[in-house]
Amino acid sequence: MSASRRSGTTDALGPEEPDPGGAELLAALLDGMDAALCALDADGVVTHWNREAERILGWTAAEAVGRQGFSGWAVRAADAEEVQGRLLSAMDAPGRQVHEFALVTKDGGRVLVRMQSAAVRGGDGKPAGVYCAFSEVHAQIDLERSIALSEALFEHASWGVVLVDADLRPAVVNEHAARALGVGRTAVLGRPLADLLGQGVEELESALAHVLGEGSPPAPAELWVSVRAADKEGGGFERRCWRSGFVRLASPLAEEPVPLGVGWLFLDVTEAKQTEQEASQLRFRSQQLHRAARAAAECEDPMEAATVHLDFALAGFADHALVDLLAGEDPVRLVRVAATPAGAPGPCLPVSKAGIPVRYPEGHPAPQCVARVGSVRASAGAGVTDWASVRQWPEGSVHALCAVLRSRGRTLGVVTFLRGPGRVAFERPDATYAESVTARVAAALDLAQALPS
Q1: What is the value of pTM for the model shown?
Q2: Which of 75, 195, 338, 418 could bond to 70 as cystine, CB 3.0-4.6 Å?
Q3: 149-208 pLDDT, tens per residue?
C-alpha cells in the first residue's frame, strides 16, 4: 500500500522496496484501509500511495510514488501550485486541515474529493512532510448523511427507535422510546424486554428473533403490549398498540453479513386503533339490533321475542343472560323467568320456578338496579373464588352488568349479563348497548304480561 523513496528497492506499490519489518507492516496496514491515503515529504514529493487512492484515481503506486507533487498528472497545471501550497501548509498548522479539490483521474476524468491533511514529524520533532487522507465527496456526503440521520433518529425523532442486540436486549434507545417504555434512557439498556413490558412481550421477542434469523419483514406489524403506567397507583399496566417496523443490522466490515442486532422503530397508534375497534363494534351491535328486531317480529309469542333479542345481543357481548321480573317492591323481590344454560353458553330460554323469588343477598347488583332504575356493573375481586355462586349466578362468572327493564313508565324487572374470566370487565359503552337491548326486551315482556294467558 505504500512505498518509500528512500529504501532503495521496489515493491508492488511503488518503485522501491520497503525496509524489512516495520516498513512491510506499515505497507500492509495502509493497503488495507478503506480511505485513500498518500504522503508527501517536505519537498512535496509523493512518498506513499495506497490501493484505495489507486481505485479512486486510477494511478498506481508505481506511477505515483516519486513524482514532484500532483502537477501534470493528478491535478490540472493551473491548479497545481494552489493545491500543493495548501497541502504543504499543513506542516506549519496544528491539527488537521480539510480541503476539497478536483483531482484528475488517469483516464482524464475529474473527481471532486474531500481531503484531510496533517503534518508528519521526524525524530527531531520537526515537520518532515504531510499525510493526506481523501475520499470522493459524494461518498463522504453519504457517510455524513448516514451519521446525521442516525443522530437525528436518536435525538429528535417523533417515533420510538430502539437498537436491540443479538440477545434481544436494548443497546440504544431514543428519548421517545424511553418515554413509551416508562423508564429512563440509561435504565433501559441491557435489560430483558420482559422487565420492561407485560403482555405482548413474547410476540415482540418472536418478531425480533425472526428478523435476526430471516431478515426484515415486508410491512410494519401492529403489536399490542402492556407497559407500566407511571400515572397509575401501584405501577399498574396499560395496553398500548405500537405499529412497529424492523430492520436487521449487519456489520459492513465482515466478509459475510453478521447480524449485529435489530433496529426497531415504532409509533403509538393506540387511540386510532381503539377508535377503529369502537367503530367496528358499534357497527356490529347496530346490525345485531336490526337482525334481532326482524327475527322478533316473526315471533307469535312475546316471551319468545324477548329471548330472541337476548340471543342476538349475547353474540360477542356476554356469556350468559338472566331475566328476572319484579314480583314485589318493598322489599325488592325478583322471579327468574328466562336464562341461558348454566354450563356452556347456549340460547336464552324460559324457565319455570313456580313464581318463587330468587334469594339474592343484601347489596346484590340486581335489586340495586331496580332501586336505582339504572344499570349496575360489578366484577369479582382478585383471589375471590365464590363470587358468582354467592350471587346466584353461573359458576365462572367474574363480570356482571345489570340493566333495568322499563316499559310504559313502569319497572318490569332486570336483565343480568355475565362474562367469564376470558373477557374484560363491562364498561360504559357496554351499559349503553345493554340498555338498548333491554328496552326492546321490556316491550316484549310487557306485551306478554298484557295478553291473556
Answers
A1: 0.61
A2: 75
A3: 788 777 778 899 999 998 999 998 998 998 888 888 888 898 999 888 988 899 999 999
